[in-house]
């Protein structure tokens, strides 16, 4: 039985980060200091880790980061007022509000309040619309990272049949748009899909973002397909004496026997997400500061 190649997201992410660091240094020479503002509301442990990782990566590539840590009881009005200040601050190029937000705050209203030019998460409806139209934009970081991994693995994606399992606004839908813009034939599966497994088994490319540990196994995969596992699930903590560990939405042991290449969890899509956030911050800084063409092609 064949064994799939493991796609190393850490190595790919470092390549993206090295490119970003070079371009950031060039901006510094022009007197421009790219700056990312990260807003965290409340004390969710996972969000705290994500924010710390983003701030650390920013420092590593020379991007200034400003953290705004707000109390869990912060009102929507207070958060919107902070976003308005960050939008108006010419020294801030990217604004990221870590999700999820406490129940009293409407995440949709918050995302809509971020200046689309500073929307480094790519969640604002203007950027979502641009992506859907195939126009250059700040595309969401996780699917952007998946696309880079796929292009590095397969080269030109034109004509491939890609199946995206999951249709969330932050992963599944923008992933489908990016793959369509890369000239794939795209099928999106979700909880109401009929014959999901059979449809998936016709795909050359499978991107899984469901949020269920080990959900997609070998029976879903055509021999030789390339599989990207977006899922991050914590398992094991409930069992006595077993430390929590991270697993993806793909059953790796079985899919490794069928696929030609597969991303691991951890060490696959996760590092790419943060690298693409740095890339988006660089692109946002360039667009706001210079009339020069972008050094890296904006995602289409
Ligand atoms: P959501 O919960 O928002 O979306 C899950 C999607 O899976 C929904 O569209 C849902 O369908 C679909 N789904 C659920 N059950 C089934 C089923 N039985 N068959 C087919 N589809 C199904 O999750 P996210 O997209 O936000 O995240 C998905 C995973 O990716 C999570 O594990 C998350 O932690 C991880 N993630 C990882 C990131 C990274 O950087 N590596 C970044 C973001 C997320 P429906 O719409 O019909 O309900």
Count of individual helical segments: 10
Small-molecule binders here are: NADPH dihydro-nicotinamide-adenine-dinucleotide phosphate
* Physical arrangement of strands within the biggest beta sheet: 1-11-8-7-5-6
The average pLDDT score comes to: 95
| Percent of sequence in beta strands | 15-25%
Largest sheet: 6 strands, parallel
Q: Please give the number of β-strands.
A: 11
CATH C-level class of the largest domain is Alpha Beta
Terminal Cα span: 37 Å
The overall number of domains is 2
Q: CATH superfamily of the largest domain, please?
A: NAD(P)-binding Rossmann-like Domain
Order of helices and strands: EHEHEHEHHHEHEHEEEEHEH
CATH-assigned fold name of the largest domain: Rossmann fold
Gyration radius from CA atoms, angstroms: 19 Å
Shape: globular
Instruction: Label the CATH architecture of the largest domain.
Output: 3-Layer(aba) Sandwich
Percent of residues in helical segments?
40-55%
- Report the structural category: alpha/beta
